[in-house]
Write a structure and sequence with these properties.
DHBP synthase, binds threonylcarbamoyladenylate, alpha/beta, eleven-stranded mixed β-sheet, binds magnesium ion, four-stranded parallel β-sheet
Length: 316
């Protein structure tokens, strides 16, 4: 069992001893350790059961800190950082040698972001090193959005979880890199593509790149253990039957399925609220005595793009 609390001193102490700590961010909870210490980073991979070819995101306290881990910052990256940091945007930039190969899987680039959470920022300010921090879930499972979610799955493997309450965004950061000078989105997330494009113009979009730029973009992600079927919910009910099935809808209630196994992401149809609720609802459904989850896509704009991306991967 991990201790859950709000003690930054304790979190610092554990991290300084080379241990891992669960940390809150505005997107999802992270499994954090010293990003510059390969031994610590190895623990992250082992606790998450994550393949070593899937690189981690480095969390830093401020834009000024970027020079420590990155060798070159394109103008557009500066613009983006200036607008969206601290916040749910990860920049993939040329890496400095100080970053251990294990952290960025030996790539020439490294993924970096400044999280927008007061406890995470206070913690980062106190440390002499940045934090490598993937989402604090076993590899391939649903990302955690509360300290309790982290405890349920990784509590046996870590000494401390810093409790920053429920995540306000609820879905991982948007990841953007540069191919040549051209910006390319690798993962839709907490900053909408519309907001990015308003600032830097047209971007490429390669969330399911067949040539693996970031192996974390593999499809078997965010999966509940139940069989998640994505489509038109009444048609799914007709095809598979309502028995042993739960529903994850955008805002509607459906007939023939018991209300106790139906979850609406946002009854008022708000995509921000839907993103906040997505992973928590999936977890609740996963814990119920059902065999199938019938789910539907949400409107495909703003945060809806990221929500649909996660739903599609959970279903595959
Ligand atoms: O919101 C978030 O980003 C959360 C919180 C904890 O900050 N973190 C997170 O980490 O989602 P993780 O490890 O679950 O996802 C990191 C993603 C992976 O898909 C990985 O492949 C990609 O970032 N990534 C890391 N380094 C990369 C690089 N050099 N180039 C391209 N993609 C990279
Ligand atoms: Mg993850």
């Amino acid at each position: 069992m991990a201790l859950i609390g709000t003690d930054i001193n304790r979190a610092c102490l554990e991290l300084n001893q080379g241990n891992l700590v669960g940390i809150p961010t505005e997107t999802v909870y992270g499994l954090a350790g010293n990003a510059l210490d390969a031994k610590v980073v190895a623990k992250i991979f082992s606790v998450k059961k994550r393949p070593a070819f899937d690189p981690l995101i480095i969390h830093i306290p401020s834009f000024q800190y970027l020079d420590t881990v990155v060798s070159k910052v394109p103008e557009q990256a500066k613009l983006l950082a200036n607008s969206f940091w601290p916040g749910p945007l990860t920049l993939v930039l040329p890496s400095k040698d100080i970053v251990p190969d294990l952290t960025n899987s030996g790539l020439s680039t490294v993924a970096v972001r400044v999280p927008n959470h007061p406890l995470a920022l206070a913690l980062l300010d106190r440390l002499d090193y940045p934090l490598a921090s993937p989402s604090a879930n076993p590899f391939g499972y649903i990302s955690p959005t509360t300290a309790q979610h982290v405890e349920q799955q990784l509590g046996g493997d870590i000494p401390y979880i810093l409790d920053g309450g429920a995540c306000t965004i609820g879905i991982e950061s948007t990841i953007i890199g540069f191919e040549g000078e051209h910006p390319v989105i690798y993962r839709p997330g907490g900053v909408s593509i519309e907001a990015l494009q308003e600032l830097i113009g047209k971007t490429g979009f390669k969330p399911h790149a067949s040539k693996v730029v970031a192996p974390g973009m593999l499809n078997n992600h965010y999966s509940p253990r139940k069989n998640l079927l994505l489509g038109n919910i009444p048609e799914l009910i007709a095809a598979y039957g309502p028995e042993k099935a739960g529903v994850l809808s955008f805002k509607d209630h459906y007939q023939k399925i018991d209300e106790s196994v139906q979850f609406q992401l946002s009854e008022k149809g708000d995509l921000t609220e839907a993103a906040q609720n997505l992973f928590g609802c999936l977890r609740k459904l996963d814990a119920m005595s059902i065999t199938h989850i019938f789910a539907e896509l949400v409107p495909n704009h703003g945060l809806g793009l990221a929500i649909n991306d996660r739903l599609q991967r959970a279903a595959s």
